[in-house]
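**User:** Here is a favour to ask of a fellow structure person. Please take any protein you like and set down a full record of it. No explanation is needed for now; the record alone will do.

**Assistant:**
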Amino acid sequence: MRATDNSIITDLFEGQLMSKLECQKCHYQSLTFDNFMDLSISIPRKSIRITGYVDVNECLASYMTAEKMDKCGYKCQKCGAIDNMEKDMTIYRFPKILVIHLKRFYQSTMRREKLSTTVFIPPTLDMRAYAPHSSKLLLLFHYF
């Protein structure tokens, strides 16, 4: 009998993200791992309403930037501090084929708008900054 998730699709496209939640008071860290089939990244807000261009590295850096978790209700498992967390995410394991989905829509207060910002994607993309724990590094990026 075959195991679940035994498919050519998961073999080729499935990677793993590592999410680290750190208490800013006692520096206790909680790690979680999530599988992904694509990275769905936003175009940074600075490029909204500006018909210029943005580099895909800026989009990836924005996606991976650590964020303060204020008013989230999360309680530290070690010291009990509430709402004093920082969360960051990195790629733990690369898929054989990395799919990057660019979110081309922005939700304004009144309606949803399509972004017309050009995203520059170089023929070679160094992913080491987004995967410090990965032994296998994805350096080449081919787009269709």
